[in-house]
Write the structure tokens for this entry.
Amino acid sequence: MSPQGQVETVPADGLTTRQRRNRPLLIVHTGDMKGKSTAAFGLALRAWNQGWPVGVFQFVKSAKWKVGEENAMLALGRLHELTGEGAPVDWFKMGQGWSWLQRGPTDDHAEAAREGWEQIKSDLAAQTYGCYVLDEFTYPIDWGWVDVEDVVETLRNRPGHQHVIITGRRAHPALIEAADLVTEMTKIKHPMDAGQKGQRGIEW
Amino acid sequence: MSPQGQVETVPADGLTTRQRRNRPLLIVHTGDMKGKSTAAFGLALRAWNQGWPVGVFQFVKSAKWKVGEENAMLALGRLHELTGEGAPVDWFKMGQGWSWLQRGPTDDHAEAAREGWEQIKSDLAAQTYGCYVLDEFTYPIDWGWVDVEDVVETLRNRPGHQHVIITGRRAHPALIEAADLVTEMTKIKHPMDAGQKGQRGIEW
């Protein structure tokens, strides 16, 4: 699968290779293993390097979990301000302090999730970013807080050249259908199986 | 699997939870799908944020492929020099210009791979880094260029607190056995299936 490699089929979509090549992608990272968000932030590094503004929308369990990526990505945003390298980086945590997995869904969280999605729709319409990370966005969809048909239609019709990466378990079939690239992260072995708890710098 | 969550078993290894928690990890990202390296660089962001020096050793197909991550990680290293934030970052490409997948293994590549591994051994002994990314290191092992028993023994006996992340397909069973955490990236859907070629900012 090198960039120079032969592709498996040539689609009858009337597009040139260049047009297809530059098509903005909807990417989904799903599965039960860690690495879904981590790989999304790796993609955000590439976007930053291309000079594409990066917007991270974190539908998170707690403020602690992604602090390493947050600090590093925001540092890259500051470096852009200082030197012009790369691109701006924004990082939004919706309903900061949420702890979905510990407390379970409530109406307040649902409302905050919907507000977050409205912000994303507004940014997509305004073409605010070149790369969106919708972190753990599969959960508000799974719980019915955000309408999957609205998500799919909005993403299908988004203007310009905006890449979108959605992470989280149990990605909705309609989201997988709409996506250009879907990766599943699968556990082969995890230290918590051997009685080890999460640790600083590795789990967050 | 939250940091506060219950672990599945409590090992009889004589260590306290804190000792186990701070144990340096050997992490393997394998499988046929992209995301293995990307997720490794996401982990490197967390290490940088912890102030752990990051060393990336790239056993690469071409200089082009990881340029986004390379530029962004090196930018974080420069930010550390400017402001003291984060940690230093070093990035090594062994046999720059290699193109293993295009040209196939040759004796010269084998020698360069062995030299790279010797450098890594030397850095591990000197505790040069807190986080090592050995990118696509499974291939020189798979091809027999680097002795897997030497790799496993060196990693098992590495001093101090050095996390090591190894990426690549076909991870050797002895490496998986030695690892603390193994994730497999599996393809569900890829745009190249639909005739799309790799694109700037996404594939590299």
In short: The CA atoms of residues 68 and 201 of chain A lie 7 Å apart. Chain A touches chain B through 87 residues (CB under 8 Å).
